[in-house]
Amino acid sequence: MNAFSPSEDDLHAYVDNQLGNERRRQVELYLSAHPEAAALVAQLTREKQSLRAALDGIPAGATPAQLDPAYIRRSLRARANRRLAMAASFVLCMSLSVVGGWQLRDMSMRARYLPMADAAEAYRIFATGDTAMQMVDLKTADVTQLQTWLDRRFVQSEPVPNFEMFGFRPVGARLMASEQGTAAMVLYRNASGQAIVYYMRPPGNLFHFDKGERKDGELLTQYWRRGKYFYAVVSPAGQAALAPIQRAMNPLRG
Q: Which regions span the lipid bilayer (predicted)?
């Protein structure tokens, strides 16, 4: 009989208290005999506690499922597995032609990567619904206060956009974790309750795109890079009240 060896999914489920009694007992026996696996579980537990601590400021019942630590870990793990599978699929191409293989790899991955998709997701989480204002870290309409708040966290960042001439004022801001590092979003609203999100984050190790805009479902994401960070403005597409802002923010103009 083969000795029991837990999979990575077993270890994550163990940390999330999602194993049955028998499987949990097997995992605990394995951990007691394998210090390296026990160290991994300890690391996963610390990550879970850090995520929980980051969400402590959000009232109970106001947290979207996308912010649940177990959900975040599962999503990142699945995303990593997809990337590994994608990379493996290019090994054959490299064996046929080193240059052609890497060109195909680059083209294929670029076709799958959507620039600033995390900005659009931030809009969906924080700019919609009745609980959005309960989830911000800073509630203010003062652009100077917002700029000071951002400058303490992002060195040499761009000035916060002022959309008052279009009828939109800031109402709050929030720090978030992204795969590329710490990100921030500033939420703007007009008198009708329509929302715009200004989003910024470091570039990370993914493709260093320049500037552009794209539609993601009902949202328009306009993005650019300046200095040390990537920036985006996300707003609903096809709404007349937002068209002047979208024209002004069009990164392809300048």
A: 84-104
